[in-house]
Amino acid sequence: MALIDDLVAALGAAHVLTGADMARHARDWMGKYRGAPLAVVRPADTAEVSAVVKLAAAHGVPVVPISGNTGLVGGTMTTGGVMVSLERMNRIRAVKRDARLVVAEAGVILTRLHDAAEAEGLYFPLWFGARGSAMLGGVLSTNAGGSNVLRYGSTRALCLGLEVVLADGRVLDLMGELHKDNSGYDLKNLFIGAEGTLGIITAAVMKLVPAPRAHATATVAARSLPDALVLLNRMQEATGGRVEAFEFMPRTYSERLRVARPDLGLPFDDIPEVTILIEAATTVPAEATPDAAGEVPLVGLLETVLADMLEAGLITDAVLARSEQQRRAMWARREAAAEITLGLTPAVDTDVCLPLDRVEGFLTTVLARLEALDPGLKSLTVAHLGDGNLHFTAFPTRDEAELKDRVMEVVEDVVAGLGGSFSAEHGVGLSKLNSMARRKNPVALDVMRAVKAALDPEGRMNPGKVIPAG
Amino acid sequence: MALIDDLVAALGAAHVLTGADMARHARDWMGKYRGAPLAVVRPADTAEVSAVVKLAAAHGVPVVPISGNTGLVGGTMTTGGVMVSLERMNRIRAVKRDARLVVAEAGVILTRLHDAAEAEGLYFPLWFGARGSAMLGGVLSTNAGGSNVLRYGSTRALCLGLEVVLADGRVLDLMGELHKDNSGYDLKNLFIGAEGTLGIITAAVMKLVPAPRAHATATVAARSLPDALVLLNRMQEATGGRVEAFEFMPRTYSERLRVARPDLGLPFDDIPEVTILIEAATTVPAEATPDAAGEVPLVGLLETVLADMLEAGLITDAVLARSEQQRRAMWARREAAAEITLGLTPAVDTDVCLPLDRVEGFLTTVLARLEALDPGLKSLTVAHLGDGNLHFTAFPTRDEAELKDRVMEVVEDVVAGLGGSFSAEHGVGLSKLNSMARRKNPVALDVMRAVKAALDPEGRMNPGKVIPAG
C-alpha cells in the first residue's frame, strides 16, 4: 500500500511494523481491547512524527499515538489507523536543578524521570503502580493522577511546557519554562488530557520538587471513613499540608489481597473495615533529622497524632513504618491493586471522584442499588481517598454487555447525585464514551466538538475516543 | 435603536446605561484607554447575561464584559459594542468550609472573598494592590497573579469550576467542585485568561486554603539580585516551601517612593541597590505559637536565616516586622507601585516573566539598550521576584507612538533572548497586540485563531483583543 511505502521511505523499514510485528501494540496490556492498526511506526524524533502525520493526512488515514501502553480505557486502539509509538523518543533533553524542571520526550518512562530527578536531589512527583512502564506522553494525554496528587496535583499541575504535532503535521512549540505566561489562550491545557484527539504530544517541560528528606508512613485501621478522615485533617493541620498520600483499602480489598497475594502479608490480625495508608514527607532538615533518641521529628509527629486518635477511639490500630523496607512493604500492598483486581472477570471498573465527605455514602448507596440490580454481584474498591477518587470495580454475576452497562449506569447515577464525576484520572478512551454521552453537560460536549472540528477538521486524530458520536 | 429597546425590555431601563451614564465604564481607571460603547448593561444574573448576549447576536453587535475595571491593558474597551458590566452579579453563592471552596459570581470584589474566607478560618490567596476593586470575573479573564503566586499559583490554579455564557448565549456549566475530573477536554482553562474573547465568565468555584496562623515578614537590603535569591532558597529550604511572597524593589523604585509617598517612609537610611520584601506564613500551631520568650518560631527561623546572611555579607541590612502594623507598613510600600508608577507619562509599562537567574541580566541589558535607543530614558521596576515576574516601566524622553513601540520591542527582544515571556499576569488586551504579533509562535497564533473561530464564529466576543489581526 502506498502509505506504508511512504512511511518506510520516511522512517526506514525497521521502524514501520506490520502484521505479527504489531502484536505488542495492537492490544492493551489487560487484553481487554484489541485493534488492527494499518501499521505501527516508531519515529525517532519530533520531525519524524510530523512527517508521519503529514503522510497520514495525505492518505486520509487516522493517526493514533501510543506510548507505554499502560492505559485502562482503550484509548490507543485503532482499526485501520497508523499507530504512532513514541517509544524511541526517550531522550531526557535537560534536567535543570536550579529551575527545578526536566525537559523530556514523550517516550520517557516515568521511573527514568524519577531517577533523573533524584540524581539532582529533586523529586518527580507523579507516582503510581505502572510507573515502570508508563511514559510521559500517555501520562500527559490522560492527565494521569496517582498517589501524590493530594500534595502535588495531577499531571496537568506539573506541566510547564508542551510540544505537540498537530493534525496537519505542524509542530506547536509551547515549551516554555516559566511559571507565569499569559500570552494568549491556554493551549497547553487543551492538549493535556485530550488523549491524542487534538494532536500528538511529543515532549514536555515538567516541574520537579525538592526531594523529601524524610517520610512518615503508617498503615491505620479504623471503623469508618468519617473517623479515618479525621486523621487526614489532623496530620494536614499538624504539618501544614505535608501529607503526600492518603489511600483507602476497604475490607473487600484486604480480603482479596490475602487470597491473591499472601506473600505481601496483612498489617492487622483481624481485617478492619477501613485500612488507610498515610504518608507525609518533609524537605526541612529540622523535621527530618533524628533527635537524640533517634526519632525523626516528622515521624514522631505522626506517632503523636495516631496515639491521640487511638486514645479517642477514632482508630483501632496503627503500624508505623520504621524503615524504608517497611515503608515499601506498605506501598506494595496498595500497589497490588491493579494486579489483584484487573484479572477478575466479568468486571466493570470505574474511576470516580466524589467530595471527600460523600465517599462513605457513595459506597453504601451504590452497593445497595447494585445488589438490587444483580443479586450476588461482588465488588472491590481502592481509593486515593485524599482526592475523593475511588477505583470501584463491580463483578456482575453474568458476562453480559447490557448488564455491565446497567451496572455502569447505576454507578454514574449515584456519583452524579452526590456531585461527583464519572471520570477522575484514567481517561475516557473507549470505556467511558457511554458515560460521556449520558452524563456530560450537553453544552460542554458541543464545545468539545467545536474545538475538535477546529483543530482536527478531518477527524483523523485518534478518532472515536473521548467525545461520543453526536 | 432596536437593540437598546430590546435590552431595556430585558433588563429594565435602570440597567441599560447610555450617553453620559456610561462615563465610568467607557474609560479605564488610568485614563489611558477610552471607548464608546453602544450601551452599558448591568444584568442581575446569568440568565440576563445570556439574554443580553442573545440579543446582541440577533443584532450582530459585539459584546464586551467588564467587572472591576482595574485592568492595565485596555481589555474592556469597545467602540460600538454592548458592554456587559458584571457589577450587580455580586453574590457569594456558598462558602464550604470543609471542602475549602467558595462559589461566587463574577462581580464579587476580591476583598469580599477575603472576608468571606476569613470568617470560616480560611484564606483566599489572590492578593494584589487592586483587591478592593478588582472583581472575580476580570481576575479569571486575565488569569491574574499578584503577590502570593509563589505559594498558591495564579488564578488558574485556584479555580475548580466555571460558568460561562457562550457567544450564542448558551450557558456552559462547568461548576464542578472536584479536585479530579477528567471527563473530556479541559474547557475551564480555555476560558480562564481568554479576556472575554471566547465567552463571558459569570461565576466560579474557587479554592480556599487554611488561614495562616502566623506570618514572618521582613524588608531586606542587598547588593545584588543573586545575593538576594540566596535568601529565597534558604527560607524555602528551612520552611519546606512556606514563603508566600518575595518582592523586589530596586533603587529606582525606592527613590521614586521617597518622592511620591514620603508618608510611607523608607526602611533603610541609605537606599540599597536591592530591597526585598519577604513573607513566609504557617498554618501549623507549633510554628505559630509564641515560645516562652514570646518569639513566634517561624519569625525566629527567618531571623536566624537573616542573621546568617548578614554575617556572610550576602545582605547588608534587614528589618523584621514585629507587629501586624509593621507588616502592613512594609506591604504599603510595595503596594504603592501602581500609584507611584502609572501616573508618570509618557510611559511604556511591561509585565514580563523571566527565569529567576536571568532577572539581573535582563535589567542590565535592557537598560543599556534603551539608553542607546533613547538617551535620557528613565525607568522604574518592581517585581514578584519569586516568580521571575517584573513590572518594568520605561519613561521615554518623548511621547511618540513609534518611539514607545520601539522601546517595547527592545524589551521583548531582551526577554525573548533570555527565554522569558512578554506577558506574565496583566493580560494582553490591546496593549500587547503588537507583541503578540511579533513574538508569539505563529503556529500557536493559528491555533488560537482556530479556537476563536470555532467558539465565536461571528467574532463578536470582545473583538480585537488578545489575538492580533491575521
From TrEMBL, chains A, B:
<dbReference type="InterPro" id="IPR016171">
    <property type="entry name" value="Vanillyl_alc_oxidase_C-sub2"/>
</dbReference>
<feature type="domain" description="FAD-binding PCMH-type">
    <location>
        <begin position="33"/>
        <end position="211"/>
    </location>
</feature>
<dbReference type="InterPro" id="IPR051264">
    <property type="entry name" value="FAD-oxidored/transferase_4"/>
</dbReference>
<dbReference type="InterPro" id="IPR016166">
    <property type="entry name" value="FAD-bd_PCMH"/>
</dbReference>
<dbReference type="Pfam" id="PF01565">
    <property type="entry name" value="FAD_binding_4"/>
</dbReference>
<comment type="similarity">
    <text>Belongs to the FAD-binding oxidoreductase/transferase type 4 family.</text>
</comment>
<dbReference type="InterPro" id="IPR004113">
    <property type="entry name" value="FAD-bd_oxidored_4_C"/>
</dbReference>
<dbReference type="InterPro" id="IPR016167">
    <property type="entry name" value="FAD-bd_PCMH_sub1"/>
</dbReference>
<dbReference type="InterPro" id="IPR036318">
    <property type="entry name" value="FAD-bd_PCMH-like_sf"/>
</dbReference>
<dbReference type="GO" id="GO:0022904">
    <property type="term" value="P:respiratory electron transport chain"/>
</dbReference>
<dbReference type="GO" id="GO:0071949">
    <property type="term" value="F:FAD binding"/>
</dbReference>
<keyword id="KW-0285">Flavoprotein</keyword>
<dbReference type="Pfam" id="PF02913">
    <property type="entry name" value="FAD-oxidase_C"/>
</dbReference>
<keyword id="KW-0274">FAD</keyword>
<dbReference type="InterPro" id="IPR016169">
    <property type="entry name" value="FAD-bd_PCMH_sub2"/>
</dbReference>
<dbReference type="GO" id="GO:0003824">
    <property type="term" value="F:catalytic activity"/>
</dbReference>
<dbReference type="InterPro" id="IPR016164">
    <property type="entry name" value="FAD-linked_Oxase-like_C"/>
</dbReference>
<protein>
    <submittedName>
        <fullName>FAD-binding oxidoreductase</fullName>
    </submittedName>
</protein>
<dbReference type="InterPro" id="IPR006094">
    <property type="entry name" value="Oxid_FAD_bind_N"/>
</dbReference>
